[in-house]
């Protein structure tokens, strides 16, 4: 990693801490620069505005989450354990970086196309990961199913349904921290019921 890449990463990591603690609206480029003893001009050299820094910070966080989830899943011994671990990890990250995720709701009308792409890629990665876990369960004899890809789609649709149903009922676009806990409890229960139904 060259010096420019190191500086860029340092800025992103400082922004991640600030955004996670204060959210996007209450964080300034001046504060981020001060946190790492950089000039404001240097910050703007790497990121033309706060929104572009937010996009890069979200991308960085998605990479961290993906790596951590894959690492955790690799240590599991069953499909059931892996799926439950994935749901738990997702919940932990949402709780830890709640202000960062909530900011995407606040600027949803201004979200750059590239951030939508990154969210789409994160969803595609999760889809691929869960599909591979169902395939692993099928190969080991833990589960039985005809088509792991189709089962993955149904599972993810059901998980999305829990989220959507909670938001529709309570008339919110983005869940509060307590709502996320309720969503997580239902996701976990759904996974347990779903995997019990697929048991060989």
Q: What does the model show?
A:
By secondary structure, this protein is mainly alpha-helical. The protein has helices spanning 3-22, 29-35, 40-46, 50-74, 79-96, 98-106, 113-140, 148-170, 177-198. α7 (113-140) crosses α8 (148-170). The chain is elongated, with a radius of gyration of 19 Å. The termini are far apart.
Short account of what is shown:
This is TetR/AcrR family transcriptional regulator. The protein has a single domain (51-198), classed as Orthogonal Bundle (Tetracycline Repressor, domain 2). Helices cover 80% and strands 0% of the residues.
CATH class: Mainly Alpha
Number of domains: 1
Helical segment tally?
A: 9
- Helix fraction, binned, reads over 70%
Mean pLDDT across every amino acid position? 87
Q: What Rg is obtained from the alpha carbons, in whole angstroms?
A: 19 Å
């Amino acid at each position: 990693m060259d010096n420019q890449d190191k500086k860029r990463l340092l800025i992103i990591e400082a922004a991640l801490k600030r955004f996670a603690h204060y959210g996007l609206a209450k964080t300034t480029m001046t504060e981020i620069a001060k946190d790492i003893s950089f000039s404001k001009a240097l910050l703007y050299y790497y990121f033309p505005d706060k929104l572009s820094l937010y996009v890069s910070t979200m991308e960085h966080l998605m990479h961290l989450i993906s790596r951590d989830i894959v690492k955790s899943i690799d240590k599991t011994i069953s499909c059931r354990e892996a799926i439950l671990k994935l749901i738990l990890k997702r919940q932990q990250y949402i709780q830890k970086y709640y202000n960062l995720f909530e900011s995407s709701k606040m600027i949803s009308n201004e979200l750059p196309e590239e951030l939508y792409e990154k969210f789409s890629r994160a969803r595609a990665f999760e889809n691929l990961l869960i599909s591979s876990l169902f395939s692993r369960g099928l190969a080991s004899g833990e589960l039985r199913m005809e088509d792991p890809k189709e089962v993955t789609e149904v599972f993810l649709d059901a998980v999305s349904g829990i989220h959507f149903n909670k938001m529709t009922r309570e008339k919110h676009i983005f869940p509060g921290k307590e709502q996320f806990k309720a969503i997580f409890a239902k996701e976990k229960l759904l996974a347990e019921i779903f995997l019990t139904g697929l048991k060989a």
